[in-house]
# Entry
Amino acid sequence: MNSATETFLDSNELVLNMGPQHPSTHGVLRVILRLDGEKVISTECIIGYLHRGVEKIAENRTYAMFVPYVDRMDYVAAVSNGLGYCLAIEKLLSVEAPPRAQVTRVILTELNRIASHLLWLGTHALDIGAMTPLFYCMREREEVLKIFENYCGARLTTHAFRIGGLQYQLQETFEQEVRRFCAGFPAKLAEYEELLTGNRIWVDRLTGIGILREQDCKELGVTGPVLRAAGVAWDLRKAQPYSGYEQYEFAIPTRQNGDTFDRYMVRIEEMRQSIRIIQQAVERIPDGPIMAKVPNVIKPPVGEVYVSIEAPKGELGYFVVSDGSLHPYRVRVRPPSFLNLQALERMAKGALVADVVAIIGTIDIVLGEVDR
Amino acid sequence: MNKLLRKIFLIDLVRGLWVTFRNQKPAYIYTEQYPQERPAVSERFRGAPRLNIHPESGETLCISCNLCAIVCPENLIVVGWQRDEKNRKQLTTFTYDLSRCMFCGLCEDACPVDALELTQDFELASYTREGQIWDRQMLEEGPRPTPYQS
# Structure
């Protein structure tokens, strides 16, 4: 008999199940809260409700066949997932995507980062009680999804990239669509800030909630905006540039306090930086081929490779082991949400029940990626 | 003092409300009135599959190379063929299990003669699971409306 059950029987502690059908857990996360009145004593996450065995599926598919499956892990940032996997296999094959493909990849992944952050902003604000931003965020996200649909034919599970480059030529209106979005979006972003940043309810509700310090982040392996809000300027796009990110000029937004409000500010600023990258990239789309010379039947040499990229939620890594056959021997995914979710325990300790909703929202988890 | 006045007169909230009022008459409405209004999907949209036939002779374009079946991650395409007297492959059956399809478009990319194509049609409901398995006739002519049987 462990101590948890003893105290449960002895005192007035209340065990509360949050989820798996709770709307604010963003999917099917179940959190067991131990409460002392309104205060949270501890939290325990139960995951696995969305487990599909993606890593095992990879072992039974050829390398090219597995690309559409990675879209289904983090389904709000499918393009980033595809980029990570394609880069990993390209490294294994020692090929590099041609410049035109690389620039297009940067544009699409940054658009996807904006779409992911917009969905996060809308739902996070809705969790806390601000309903209006949700509709505005969805409106702008729709424009991004329209660009995706016009480019590759799907809105959410895009399958935009192939190993070695791109499958589809850019449509004629692509540059025009991207430019129009970039021109209109900063004004919309200012609108969200007008609604939220100065709003006293929003500020009071978020400041000082779910503080996660730099030390905790490093201990738990937390990456992405959560880490940057704690004051660490760590971004894989700068630290180990991939896909030509070293050619673009952008800043890493950081904040010092590491609370929920800072994470909100970091993500808003990141969207601005993404727009900057897209604007630079769309001016320099080179001509040329979009596909590197990749054999029809992909059979990489024996070896293993780890490639990580900066997904909207943090470091997304793919560890692929090849035994020289048609199928990967092992594909291991390092999803950002899974490691960021660990921080919930430390962030929620001592908080109020109502703040747990805000804290789950601020980590920006997607359960498809946590469970895989 | 200024800060206090701003706090008393709820300037921050009024500004937020002003944003909401500004958006009362949007220039463009994104909501689609779906059954009344058909959404315009893009040219590259990946929807219902179609097996193309020659527009004049009506013969199938498929050369029974089986590449689509090989490349499909879900193994949902079955191509059946027979050798004719000249030892050439003649397509006999073609089944496509839409219930397992994830519309990744790999089959379409693999097809060397543009016979298999994913079209803009996106209304794929059927009454039964068997109705999701499209045979060659359905793939060539489009889905037939199924009368409901209880």
Observations:
- Helices of chain B lie at 2-8, 11-22, 67-71, 106-110, 136-141.
